[in-house]
Amino acid sequence: MSRDPLILGHVVGDVLDPFARSVSLGVMYKNRLVINGSDFKPSAVVDRPLVQVGGDDLRIFYTLVMVDPDAPNPSNPTLREYLHWLVTDIPATTNATFGREIVCYEPPRPATGIHRVVFVLLRQMGRETVFTPEMRHNFSTKRFAMEHYLVPVAAAYYNCQREGGTGGRRFIRDD
């Protein structure tokens, strides 16, 4: 059985088809690195993260997509995927601030359940080849990539639930 956290967390399947990772992707909120499957509360993700992009060819550009495949509720994700952020034309070896933000950052604010928040880095075929989607809700990373000739090269995700939340599960201690 695969130990790949993107497969175990159903990111591959729900958001992406299997792909070959070929570029590094670092996502950091304040001073905390996003490690696949880690937990972040909404108060920790209010401000847009610093997103570092690897690669070695400065002539290559990337698109960063940030989605919630569990919106509005993991048991009934009727808005899957909700688009939280979209940045295009990010040069290799830089960070997302060097790109063109075409959908502004909207922090996750899950009301119920544990939501996966997924970052996908896609290689572009050229500059200014990616355009703004019509809506944030019912976005499809797979479809968007196909329509814009984008190739997935890296991904990362974290789990997010409301501040006082336990994901809808109640644990009763019997002490």
What fraction of the residues are assigned to beta strands by DSSP?
A: 25-35%
- Strands, count: 9
Q: Please identify the structural class as seen in this structure.
A: mainly beta
Mean pLDDT: 91
Sketch the topology as an H/E string, one letter per element. Answer: HHEEEEEEEEHE
Our measurement of the CA-to-CA distance between the termini, rounded to an integer number of angstroms, reads: 37 Å
Question: Which percent bin holds the helix content?
Answer: under 10%
Could you please describe the fold and organization of this structure?
The structure is a single chain. The chain has helices at 5-8, 11-14, 141-147; strands at residues 25-29, 32-33, 38-40, 50-53, 61-68, 82-91, 100-103, 115-123, 151-160. By secondary structure, the chain is mainly β. The strands form two sheets. Strands 3-9-8-5-6-7 form a six-stranded mixed beta sheet. A three-stranded antiparallel beta sheet has the order 2-1-4, with no helix packed on it. A hairpin with a 2-residue loop joins strand 1 (25-29) and strand 2. The longest helix is centred in the last third of the chain and has 7 residues, at 141-147. The termini are far apart. Belongs to the phosphatidylethanolamine-binding protein family. InterPro entries: PEBP, PEBP-like_sf, PEBP_euk, Phosphatidylethanolamine-bd_CS. This is Flowering locus T.
